[in-house]
Design a protein that fits this description.
Layout lengths: L8 E4 L5 H5 L8 E4 L9 E3 L3 E5 L4 H5 L2 H6 L1 H7 L5 H4 L4 H7 L6 H7 L3 E6 L2 E6 L4 E3 L2 E2 L6 E8 L5 E8 L10 E9 L5 E9 L6 E2 L1 H7 L6 H14 L14
Parallel strand pairs: 1-2
Antiparallel strand pairs: 3-4, 4-9, 5-6, 5-9, 7-8, 10-11, 11-12, 12-13
The chain binds flavin-adenine dinucleotide.
């Protein structure tokens, strides 16, 4: 259906972005395809490799999935920051990713986690790192007829953790001025073995800051290492001025 659409074709997951957008005067759609009833799209599967989160799983369900929450607390905490309980009962991480807002909350956490998007299309299925999906504000790399069917997260080694924090001017229901996600694995002595650091709302797409990860790998997160991490993050930012904050503030 998506492939055969003559005009604009949209996928409807939770609709918390799409329905808002559909109220604007310039919104036109030839077809809107609701994916919530497609078999398998609404479930979180735990596999030998990790987790497969169906594209229509509402973010609220992630917070009640004990195994997912234990393995990837930062991804779940990011998804559970989106909007309010009402929004989370509808919205999805795949929708957050495909809406391609630079300030999307779950995306830095997914990027830091090394998550993959499983994309189904006319030529079959392919998996890509989530950071390759948004290519600019409101734009994705998906081609006509393609749809994200699931987001996958690997099983984790021992001594691993992840977290997501955002700064917003209000206490909730606001868009991130800056979002930051970190995913770490340490050895038994507390030395960082591997790390991924991702920033949101400071560039047209989420920034994976390799230099920030390198600043803490091999350390026990001493103050000097954290200062280097902060410097690497500041250097990687390419923010804009807007009503939520200036370039300097960001
Ligand atoms: C009151 C309110 C508060 C909000 N607060 C936040 C917030 O704090 N943080 C935040 O990040 N966002 C926030 N949002 C935005 C929105 O809730 C999120 O971006 C949400 O994750 C979108 O998911 P959805 O399933 O509702 O997407 P939808 O609206 O269904 O879709 C969004 C876009 O992605 C496309 N799409 C959806 N699913 C797929 C798929 N599987 N494959 C390909 N394309 C797809 C759609 O066609 C559409 O273009 C808020 C929105 C509202 C209305």
């Amino acid at each position: 259906m998506l492939l055969e659409a003559k005009g604009k074709a949209f996928i409807l997951a939770g609709g918390t972005d799409l329905l808002v957008r559909s109220k604007s005067d310039d919104f036109e759609a030839d077809i809107i395809v609701d994916i919530k009833s497609i078999e398998g799209f609404g479930t979180v599967r735990e596999t030998a490799e990790g987790f497969s989160i169906g594209a229509a799983v509402p973010c609220a369900d992630l917070g009640t999935h004990a195994a997912l929450k234990a393995a990837w607390p930062g991804v779940v905490e990011a998804a559970n920051l989106i909007g309010s309980d009402q929004i989370q009962s509808r919205c999805t991480m795949a929708g957050n990713l495909c809406n391609a807002s630079p300030a999307a909350d779950s995306v830095p956490a997914l990027v830091a986690a090394g998550a993959q998007a499983v994309i189904a299309g006319p030529d079959g299925s392919r998996a890509v790192p989530v950071e390759d999906v948004p290519v600019g504000p409101g734009r994705t790399s998906l081609t006509k007829g393609e749809i994200i069917e699931a987001i996958t997260l690997d099983a984790r080694p021992a001594h691993s953790g992840d977290a997501y924090l955002r700064f917003i001017p209000r206490t909730e229901m606001d868009i991130a001025v800056v979002g930051a996600a970190v995913n770490l694995t340490m050895d038994a002595s507390g030395t960082v073995q591997s790390a991924r650091v991702a920033l949101g709302a400071v560039a047209p797409t989420v920034v994976l800051v390799e230099a920030a990860a390198q600043a803490i790998i091999g350390t026990k997160l001493e103050d000097a290492a954290l200062e280097k991490l902060a410097e690497a993050c500041s250097a990687a930012c390419r923010p804009i001025d807007d009503k939520r904050g200036t370039v300097q503030f960001r």
